[in-house]
User: What shape does this take?
Amino acid sequence: MFLNDLNTVKAVALRLLARREHSRVELTHKLLKKAFSVDLIETVLDQCVEKDWQSDLRFSESYVRTCIARGDGMLKIQMRLRDKGVSQAMIQQVVPMNPDFWQMQLTNKWSKKRVSAKIDIKAHARNIRFLQSRGFTFEQIQVFMSL
Assistant: This one.
């Protein structure tokens, strides 16, 4: 069943945007789950962008700040933004590219992890996998492990 009321679609979209920033793709998926027609969703989202209620740039900046505060690495942040429908150009615009920043982020993430006193090959590999799973590049990890 498709709902065909423009005001209903707009109300749901604004309610979602009032809670937090969303990318256009996220909003589209959430509104489609509510069985709204694609044409109405596109019309409402165009209005939201026009009135600056929804902005992929604002969403991306907010999302990157949240991920950095959580301790995620550059690769993980970039992957999640792509999954949320953010363009590659915008990702490059909002994700810091300074290698020193990411080394500091890696150091902060590492300091929160408890490390056993016994470091053998298995533990070393486990530590590398831990940092890779947090989105840090192998090169960043190698530099960090050599300190």
